[in-house]
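> example.struct
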């Protein structure tokens, strides 16, 4: 039986760099762009074959085969594509060793990825028969199509792990606790093997669990497994993998956390690009050169990050406890920009109390940015470079904006605003330089200030892995 699964993309709103250290938490939101995997399975006699197809990309087909009766050596994966896909390969290899199949199958997993993961230059659009899914077809191989920073490799590894588990694990449901833990742990191992390094894993965690406050796993768990794997027989590697995936406490934390109703994020793509690994090494080098000062910065930034999480959670509680007051509060936001919100506290005690939760959000975003700029200045890494500072400050002048940050590692890739949902279209309109709008006060906004940013059609969608409807993919397979 064919099944379809999906996993979301991500934006790390708070906790870049800090999340590399298991002592600190981060806040990562899952986004509406998703990666899908459609399975097709038949029984086979001689050998097992797993083909991963990614039809949106030129030469997007990778085939792996292995023999289940070979008990002496780790399973051998043979690829039939001259261009390898390290992420698909590591996922298949890890999963097959984890499961150690007892039956041969011919498996095909077809991958589809939503448009926002990659630039769409020179693409053609294909729709499913019922029109509910539309994907862009590229003319180049996957590794030559520019990415947008949404975590495509984490999406691929997570959804492929889920798809393969659904074939090998009887009665597999993707959303119970045990399945999610298996998906997460296997995907983290495979992602680290493919990347040849152990990262913080926030992207795989968000692809699995959705929007979360995330604290990373203990890296030694994976480094130890990987460093020993080539010395082990199939049987021993399989046993080690089972032990690490199912019986080891990874000490990672994933607490559900999403934006309150009426609040949205607005992601802006900024013409530019950044080298994350270089920035990470600059930041870590500064941290080890100046342990005391950097500890102060880490602590202050962490306080600001957690204040943002707390104020969003408190707002969510208000939306549940007093929906009427909440909706009045949220609808008032479209009439204020950041400076005006901060000013509200000085109007009267009543205003200060009414807008307290919103003022807290605004202040925590400002504090996050302050400490990110200190990190920028001290480490030499362009985390919030001056161009982004100017752009974010300009965004703060637009009504309905509560603030914005450079997500993830920062740099010149993107900005992410937290805004009132009801203001989205007016924010887009007032920043695209297109001209008049009757109900907007644009007098103070020079629209050329926003020339570098193009707003992306993305919203928070808090779910992690999901099972999708096969009907929605008919006509694309
Ligand atoms: N749709 C897809 N089909 C097949 N392989 C994919 C797909 N998307 C991503 N991949 C794999 O992931 C690789 C990209 O991973 P890389 O680590 O370079 O980017 P990333 O850090 O995930 O990037 P970004 O966060 O910008 O999406 C591709 O070269 C390919 O191996
Ligand atoms: C700098 C870092 O903390 C975040 C990188 O985030 P992004 O890839 O820029 O979304 C690195 C990591 O967590 O692996």
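> example.seq
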């Amino acid at each position: 039986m064919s099944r379809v699964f999906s996993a979301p993309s991500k934006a790390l709103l708070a906790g870049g760099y800090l999340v590399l250290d298991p002592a600190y938490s981060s806040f990562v939101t899952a986004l509406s762009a998703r990666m899908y995997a459609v399975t097709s399975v038949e029984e086979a006699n001689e050998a097992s074959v797993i083909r991963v197809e990614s039809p949106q990309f030129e030469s997007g087909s990778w085939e792996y085969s292995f023999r289940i009766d070979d008990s002496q050596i780790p399973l051998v994966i043979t690829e039939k594509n001259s261009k390898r896909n390290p992420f698909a390969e590591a996922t298949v290899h890890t999963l097959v060793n984890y499961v150690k199949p007892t039956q041969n199958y011919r498996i095909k997993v077809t991958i589809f990825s939503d448009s926002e993961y990659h630039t769409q230059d020179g693409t053609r659009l294909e729709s499913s028969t019922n029109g509910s899914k539309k994907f862009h077809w590229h003319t180049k191989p996957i590794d030559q199509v520019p990415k947008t920073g949404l975590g495509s490799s984490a999406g691929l590894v997570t959804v492929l792990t889920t798809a393969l588990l659904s074939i090998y694990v009887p009665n597999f449901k993707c959303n119970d606790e045990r399945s999610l833990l298996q998906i997460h742990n296997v995907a983290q191992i495979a992602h680290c093997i493919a990347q040849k390094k152990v990262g913080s894993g926030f992207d795989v965690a968000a692809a699995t669990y959705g929007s979360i406050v995330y604290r990373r796993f203990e890296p030694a768990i994976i480094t130890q497994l990987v460093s020993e794997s080539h010395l082990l027989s199939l049987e021993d590697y399989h046993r080690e993998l089972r032990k690490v995936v199912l019986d080891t406490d990874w000490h990672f934390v994933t607490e559900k956390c999403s934006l309150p109703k009426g609040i949205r994020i607005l992601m802006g793509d900024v013409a530019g690009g950044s080298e994350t690994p270089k920035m990470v090494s600059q930041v870590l080098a500064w941290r080890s050169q100046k342990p005391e000062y950097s500890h102060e910065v880490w602590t202050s930034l962490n306080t600001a990050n957690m204040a943002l999480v707390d104020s969003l959670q408190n707002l969510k509680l208000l939306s549940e406890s007093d929906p009427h007051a909440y909706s009045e509060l949220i609808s008032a936001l479209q009439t204020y920009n950041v400076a005006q919100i901060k000013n509200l506290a000085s109007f009267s005690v009543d205003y200060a109390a009414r807008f307290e939760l919103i003022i807290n959000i605004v202040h925590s975003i400002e504090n996050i940015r302050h400490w990110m700029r200190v990190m920028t200045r001290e480490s030499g890494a362009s985390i919030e470079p001056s161009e982004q500072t100017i752009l974010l400050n300009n965004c703060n002048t637009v009504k309905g904006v509560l603030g914005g940050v450079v997500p993830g590692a920062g740099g010149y890739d993107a900005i992410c605003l937290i805004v009132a949902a009801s203001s989205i279209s007016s924010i887009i309109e007032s920043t695209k330089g297109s001209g008049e709008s009757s109900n907007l006060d644009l007098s103070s906004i020079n629209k050329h200030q926003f020339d570098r940013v193009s707003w992306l059609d993305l919203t928070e969608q808090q779910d992690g892995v999901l099972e999708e409807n096969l009907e929605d993919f008919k006509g694309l397979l």
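> remarks
The first strand starts at residue 4 and ends at 14.
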